[in-house]
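Supplementary Methods S3. Input chains for the assembly prediction are listed below.
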Amino acid sequence: MLQPVAKIELVLMDDTGSTSAVIVNVPSGSTVETCDASAIALASLVAPMSDAVLVRYRVSWRNQVEAPGVAESGAAIQHAGVFIFEDTGIGSLGLVNVPAIKDDLLVSSEPGAGVLIDQTDSRVVALVADLFTIEASNIFGDVFDALVAAYRQSRV
Amino acid sequence: MAIVAAPTATLSFTWKDASGSIGHTDIHVPDGTLAAVALTAAEALGALLAAMSDCVLLGYKLTYNRVENAPGSPVAGSRVEEKGNFIWTTADGRSTRFSIPAIKDTQLNASGSVNRSAVATAALIAGVTDVDAIFAGASGSDITAIAKAYQSFRSSTRNELPTDG
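Predicted structure tokens for the full assembly:
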């Protein structure tokens, strides 16, 4: 369920380098453009009232599952499925981590039994296709267009 | 001074395993992606990811990040623990609040209350309660008026303590 408000967080830094935020709600139906304009307007009002300075701000929306249920017995976040993607045009890599990857996604024959993720599994194929559709990328904005490796790893 | 957008927005999915430990899956999408589009995509993506994990999905957060690439210098001696607290009333009769770190002494009365007549404070109140402003309480109801405003001091966290003490 999408929460009724998005949050604008203006992060200010003081003379010691410590930071703290001014956190203000806005309706969740607001566009990013509107939130940006509101954040900048609010920052201009806050600036003359504070001895700290604005260093960054963020706008966020939060959705909570109303009845999340219970994790599978033995599920452990460190048993992660790691998917390495590439922007093949520039050779830049990125990673998607799925905690507690299901065992039935791992290949059962050597080489790589119990470690490699079956890239032909329909769930993997569907995830990869969806990530390509939404232009998922690494943090630098290098857009994924190929899955180059997928395996299980102990990772938190 | 200029505000610069990060290249991507982040969809962060939160998971809980059998022991109650929390994990995350972070997916980056172009910063130009509309929030409504990203939130719709997150619904589909959450279902696809859940089919691959033994954890339960608790929810997700969509965040757009901006950085001030040339921030000014903080005033010497400024401390974020020194807060200006502003409590507001909303159109649905409830209240909401936010605080401003390192509130300037010029905005305060001798008692520690905020001087609502001070120019900057008056501008803040007018700006936040303006009918065209979208600032709201937790329910999404518009902020309509200032209720209280005062200074308070928060305990320093370990990271905020001086390093040369």
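Residues 35-50 of chain B form the longest helix (16 residues). The CA atoms of residues 61 and 154 of chain B lie 28 Å apart.
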